[in-house]
Amino acid sequence: MKHIGIVKPETLVTILNVLGMPVILIYALSMFVYPWVAVGWDWHQVQNVWDRWQGLNVGMLAFASSLTAFSISRYNAEKQREREFRASKAFLPDALSELSSYLASSATVFKAGWEAARGEEVQVTAPNPPPGYRDVFRECIRYAEPEVGDFLARMLVRLQVHSARLEAYIEQQGDDTWVSPDKHNLISYLYRLGELQAMVNKLFPYARSMASFDSGPLDWEDFRNAYGNLDLWPEEYYIDDQMNLEAFTKRVLERADPLDTQQGQAADARNSRG
Fold first, then answer.
1. pTM of the predicted model, to two decimals?
2. In the chain, where are the structural domains located?
3. Are 204 and 93 in contact (CB under 8 A)?
4. At 167, phi and psi to the nearest 5?
5. Which of the listed ranges 89-103, 113-127, 234-248 does the model predict with the highest average pLDDT?
6. Runs of H (alpha helix) within the chain
């Protein structure tokens, strides 16, 4: 949104409403109530007061009209935004269902890599992201309330990172496709996959209009449910007491915002390997 000086138009209208309504009330009392009392209910004296303050009266009427017009315009714009968001939100449950399937397919790739670490040769194919979710997210971000739009934007970035990570994880060797068996990296990848599924789960009730949007941080219960949705059982992904999926997840959750832990997660993986 463009700014007027250093203030957004929407903020300016809010300020005018907050300050303007008391000013209009004081003006109305001073111009239409107080003169009657001050001059002993003399009609001619009241007319003289109004005549002397004619310029102020005209200015206040113009100010009140402008304030009313701005408020009506903002109200109509907000209602239009709500209608546009409802239309965009109608496609969100389907997009989230497709993403859940995509994340479950991604989990099978990482599970294959974990088994390959035992010396087995495993061939896998990277699943393709759903084709339409980006458009749905973009439209929802455009019309959603700020906290919902911010959540969707962060989720969209993480999905793009996941897609690139998955492609890099699968190595092309000649005509065959193989996965890297590095278990330390796999645990961090599984954490990020669980985070995405937890974000999908958090959005589902809101997308289906079953609950208001939950802006709270993700916790271990969110991740535990997400791992279950992905058919990942944390106790099976274990290297040692410090480097296992459950301990790794809880460490990251304790140390940083679980929706913004890229650097913390990478540092934790390096420290555990060292």
1. 0.71
2. 9-85, 90-273
3. yes
4. -65, -40
5. 89-103
6. 9-32, 34-38, 43-52, 54-89, 92-116, 133-143, 146-169, 183-207, 220-229, 245-255, 262-273
